[in-house]
Amino acid sequence: MDAFAVGATLVLLVLSVxxxxxxxxxxxxxxxxxxxxxxxxVFDDSYPLYAAPSCPFLEKVFDCVKNGRPDRDYLKxxxxxxxxxxxxxxxxxxxxxxxxxxxxxxxxxLSLNQWQSLTCMLYTSVPEAKYTSVRTGxxxxxxxxxxxxxxxFSRNALxxxxxxxxxxxxxxxxxISTQDDKLWSGVDxxxxxxxxxxxxxxxxxxxxxxxxxxxxxxxxxRLVAYEKALHTWATWVDSNVDSNKTKVFFQGVSPDHxxxxxxxxxQANNCSAQSEPLPGPNYPGEAHPAEKVVxxxxxxxxxxxxxxxxxxxxxLRKDGHPSVYxxxxxxxxxxxxxxxxxxxxxxxxxxxxxxxxx
Length: 358
Ligand SMILES: *[C@@H]1O[C@H](CO)[C@@H](O)[C@H](O)[C@H]1NC(C)=O
Ligand SMILES: *[C@@H]1O[C@H](CO)[C@@H](O)[C@H](O)[C@H]1NC(C)=O
Ligand SMILES: *[C@@H]1O[C@H](CO)[C@@H](O)[C@H](O)[C@H]1NC(C)=O
Ligand SMILES: *[C@@H]1O[C@H](CO)[C@@H](O)[C@H](O)[C@H]1NC(C)=O
Ligand SMILES: *[C@@H]1O[C@H](CO)[C@@H](O)[C@H](O)[C@H]1NC(C)=O
Hints:
The protein is α/β, with parallel strands linked by helices. It has helices spanning about 5-25, 90-95, 110-125, 180-185, 220-240, 290-300, 310-315, 345-355, and strands at about 25, 30, 35, 40-45, 75-80, 100-105, 130-135, 140-145, 150-155, 160-165, 170, 190, 210, 215, 245-250, 305-310.
C-alpha cells in the first residue's frame, strides 16, 4: 500500500469509529476487538458460578437439581470465546459500578430466567449483603439496599401495547402503552427481550386482533408483525432514551430445542436425554429467523443498543433446558427455558463484560 492508500484507510477507520459513536445503532459483542459470541463450551470444574441452594429466592421451575435432574455435567460448562477470554464475574465489582442505579429486564419468561440468574450471581458473590424482593403485579423488584441497587423484572411478553375492548384484545403494533413509557423512563440499564409469544396461536395467543394505524387484521405473518413491533420499540428508544444516562440492551433471541434435525439428531423431538452441549463453534441448523429480524431493526436505530448475542451460544446448549425437571411448570416438558445455574449465567457474564468495560 502506498502512503495515500494508508492515509485513506486510516481516515475510513476513524470515520467508521465516529459513525459508531455518533449514530449508535447495533453495538455488537466485541470486547477490545474480540467477538465474544464466537467460541465453544468447555468443561470447567470450577463451575457453576453459584449453587442453587445458596440462592433462597430462586424459583422452583428453574431449579433442576432440586426437581430431580440426575445428571450434573450441564452445570460445568463455561463459554470460551475463540479469540480472548471473558472476564470472571465479580459481583461486588458490578454492585459497586451500579451503585445508586436501577437495571430493568423487560420481556417474557426468558427475561425472568436471566433476571433470576443475575440476582443469584450477585447474591452469592456478596452473601452477607441484605436484600429485599417484592412483586407487585407484573413487576418484581430485587434490591440491595447497602448499594442502593435495584434489579427489576417487568413481565411484558410483546413489548407493544395490548388494549382490551368489548370485542376482544387488540395488539397495537404501532404503540407503546403510556404505563410502559413511564415505567422505562429514567431507568439506568434497560434490557429488552421479546419473541416467544409472537408464535402462539389458539388459546395461548395473547390477542384477538392486530392493529396498525387504522387497519385491523385477524392475523398476519408473525415475523412481519414482530418486525413492525420492534420498529415501534426502536422509535421509542430513539426518541426517549438519553444515551448519556441510560444503557440499552437487547437480549438476543433464546432458542428452543424441540427438533433434533436442527442439531443432527433426527430421532430427537425434544431436549430430554440431552446431557452434553454440541462441540465446536457452529450450530448445524439455520440462523434463527427472529434473530435476523432483531439485528436488522437494531441496525436502523440512531441510539446505541447493545445486542447480547446469545443465540448461537445457546443453540449449542441442547443440554441446558429443564426438560421434565421444570416440575411440569411449562407443559410438562420444557425445552424453552434454562436450568439455573446454567446458560443464562453466561448471558449475564456478557452483560457484565459490557457494563464494566471502560
Ligand atoms: C452473533 O453471533 C453469531 C455467532 O458468533 C454471529 O454469526 C453473528 O454475526 C453475530 N451477530 C452480530 C450482530 O454480531
Ligand atoms: C472484585 O472486585 C473488587 C473491587 O470491586 C476487588 O476488590 C476484588 O478483589 C475482586 N475480586 C476478585 C475475586 O477478583
Ligand atoms: C384514522 O381514522 C381517523 C378517524 O376515522 C382519521 O381521522 C385519521 O385520519 C385516520 N388515520 C389514518 C392514518 O388513516
Ligand atoms: C451527552 O454527553 C456529551 C459529551 O459530554 C455531550 O456533548 C452531549 O450534549 C450530551 N447529550 C445529551 C443529550 O445530554
Ligand atoms: C422426548 O424425547 C424422548 C427421548 O428422545 C422420547 O422418549 C419421548 O417420547 C419424547 N417425549 C415427547 C413428549 O415427545
